[in-house]
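User: What would this chain look like folded?
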Amino acid sequence: MITHLDKQGNPAMVDVTEKTVSHRTATARSIVSLPDEVLTHLTGGDLQTKKGSVFQTAIIAGIMGAKKTGELIPLCHPLGLDNCKVTININEQQEVVIDCTASITAKTGVEMEALVGASIAALTVYDMCKAMSHDIVIKETKLLSKTGGKRDFKRA
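Assistant: Here's the prediction, encoded as C-alpha cells.
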C-alpha cells in the first residue's frame, strides 16, 4: 500500500490522527570508504584536516540533519526529537562506520530522521576530506533497527 497518495492519486501527508502515541526509536548506519591518503590523517580516533576535526563536525552535522528531516523529505512529518545520537568508528576494513539513533514519543516513527542523520554525517566526512582525495565512497546507508509503532524491525 502506498501511503503518501490520497484516493485520487495525489501526494498527501499520512494522517496520523488516529495512531497511538508510543516510544519510538530507529538506528541507521552509513559506511564511508576512505583511501589511504586520507586515512594517514587519522589520529586519536579522529581525522584532522585544515577544516578541523572531521568526526566531531560530522556528528554535529548528523544531529542537525536529523532535526531537519521534515524540511528535507517531502511529506515527512516535522518532529521534535527527544534524542539523537551519532557515533563514528573505524571498522576492521578501515571504513568509517556512522550510526545515528533517533528517538521520540509520538504517533509516527523516526526511521527517516535516523537515515538522514547518518547520511548527512557521511556527506560531511566526504566534504571535509575531499581536498585530500576524491576517491572517497559512501558505500551504503541502511536502517539497522526500529521500535515502536505497528511492528519492530531489526536487521539480521
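The domain at 22-148 is CATH 3.30.70.640 (Alpha-Beta Plaits). If you want, I can go into more detail on any region.
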